[in-house]
Amino acid sequence: MRVRALSVVTAVAAVVATVGASPSNAVPGGSVESPQHFVQLGDSFSSGNGAGSYVEKTCWRSPNNYGARVAQLKGATYTNAACSGGVTADILEPRDLGSPSWRTRTYRIPAGAVDARAQWLAKAKADQFCGTPAQSDFSYVYTISSSASAGDLYTATVRCQLQAAPQINAVDRSTDAVFVTTGGNDVGFTSIVIDCLVLRAAGSCKARIDAANAQLTSLKQETKETLQAVHDRSGGRAHVYLLGYPHLINTDNFRLGSTYDAGNELSRMQLRGDTLQRAAMTELSRANGGRGGFTFVDVKRDWGGYTHGIDPHVVADNSDAWLVPVLSPGRELKEFVHPTAAGWGASALALADAMR
Question: Of 253, 261, 345, 352, which sees the most CB atoms within 10 A?
Answer without folding.
Answer: 345
